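Re: the multi-chain job from yesterday

Posting the exact lines I submitted so nobody has to dig through the queue logs.
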Amino acid sequence: MGGLRMRGRGWEGVVAGLWLALAWASPANAATAQTLVNRGNERGAPPCQSCHGAGGRGQAAAGFPRLAGLDAGYLRRQLDDYAKGTRSNAVMQPVAQALSPDERDGVAMYYARLPVPVKAMVTKPADGPGADARGATLATRGRWSAQVPACEQCHGPGGVGVGANFPPLAGQPAAYIEAQLKAWQQGTRRNDPLGLMQHLSRALSAQDIAAVAQWFAAQSPVGRSVGK
Amino acid sequence: MTARLIALLLAPLVLAACSGRTPLDAHAADAPRAAAPAAKAPATTAFTPPAESEIPAGPYGDMVRLGREIFLHTRKAAPAYVGNGLNCVNCHLDAGRLADSAPLWGAYGMYPQYRKKNHHVNSYGERLQGCFTYSMNGKAPPLDDPVIVALETYSYWMAQGAPLGTKLEGAGYPSVPRPAKAPDYARGQSVFGRDCALCHGAQGQGQKVAGTYVFPPLWGPDSFNWGAGMHELDKAAAFIKANMPLSRGGMLSDQDAWDVAMFMDAHERPQDPRYHGDLAATRKAYHDTPMSLYGTRVNGRLLGARPAQ
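And the result, structure tokens for all chains:
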């Protein structure tokens, strides 16, 4: 042990450390992720950006979610869950299965590092003020008579997202949020910790889901302050 | 030594448990874990508070709204009186409206009340002051301070139509039958890791967004202090069983609720403000109950001896 420690302090150790540092900083990972994003891979994964947009901004009209700035752990887990089928989606399942574990890590970290697009696809609620009020109430106060907490209580103020388990809802396409809530309801998405989303989504009506999806789609992805 | 002390402290619990529920209850809640139907039907109560949309316009309604704002965003709306990272709504869900979550409508009509905690008759305002002193680890606002007036007004508005001096169904936290086995730190730790750490963090530190807590810290310098009711095992178990995890109230078994309450309350937190240099004396004066671990030794740590700050 003592010898090792000595060597670690000698110039050989410094050289070894330099090699390590070089290997660490080498663009191999980033290039792989960049290639996947732009061109896909030879096992059939299409380029991520063909659906998730340039800079990972998503495509609101098609309901493809923003990936830029999402938590890397969250993104990685979603890819794993698509591959396993605990999150089922006809498009994403074969894509995830075509990615190696290293490639999943790479793209997850790639998108996590991209800046959150400030003005991307913030849409105004399409329906009247009634729908907006219903969405706002569910989002900020919940419906406790049915054991439904405010979405903000876990997903953060304005739905900006909290940590690796509560992804951002703010500024995501309404069609995407709506589809997810329905997937929780129907059990085609069942990768939620403690069954939280599968459980509470069952207390929501189709109108609730549409209203809350539109409310979050209209929120700024970079957040607002708490309170009024 | 530690285990013996805890066993000793909790012996009354075990004795009480023998007379009541069967141990079968302990794991009854394990089944509905992953994607099960509602573990608890929505609470039905004898009293329903008015809808928020009914808060009137004008100066009275403004005060009700201010009270609600303070209740939801206490640290931000009453910074002079809050010394931690909590908000009233953390322990009184749905802005203080939810049955079995110590709703304001269940408390308001029960004051003035004699309290053993301070050996005199407390007005509702004084009761609110206690929340700031202990649960918020802060400073009691004067009784005529707008913070107290607003919270009183909000409570009064919410309790309109409720009978005075009657303990309403859904008031307070429903007590949880004493568990078959004395609450245990190690079992509580595994419940915590399984069902609580997701939101409250692996170290119970809570989770923040942009400097503001989204999930409250359960111990440590930003949590409630050793004088708060929630540091007592029965109260914590009752809150947890009825309300945690958010949206899954009733999911934990009684045993799990007691175990995880014990785990939470066996961690350091800010000092009891009534402490004046003698831990044993403070325990004797204010915490002489098996429900408090203050001044006792758990896992070799004398609780209250090195309070979080």
